[in-house]
Specification:
Length: 124
Amino acid sequence: MISRLDVTDKALEVINTLEAQHGPLMFYQAGGCCEGTQPQCFEKGGFFPRMNDVLLGHIKDFEFWIDRDLFEYWQYSHFTLDVLDGFGPGGFSLETPLGKTFKVHYRLFSTEELADLEPVKRNE
């Protein structure tokens, strides 16, 4: 099965730092408004996905949720979580005090990949 989600080594270093500081983590990527579509990192249980939001995959053992409407738009795309120096909009995410901000790079799946994608789980 083809994964819908990957992480860069740079982002994984930040995630390991955050895990050491905060324990288990989770990610949520909203569909707009206050934080735009910037992925947010929280302590596990620090954010509650809405009904029908999508569990896109895992980074380490940490859930990566995406807004249900955003998934409808990006469902044919692979997500790669990366990290940049600087502050993203807002600052609710755990990496902000480190002077970092998470970012997702997208690419469309090939026809072959689409035929063998990992299924997603929706929040009930």
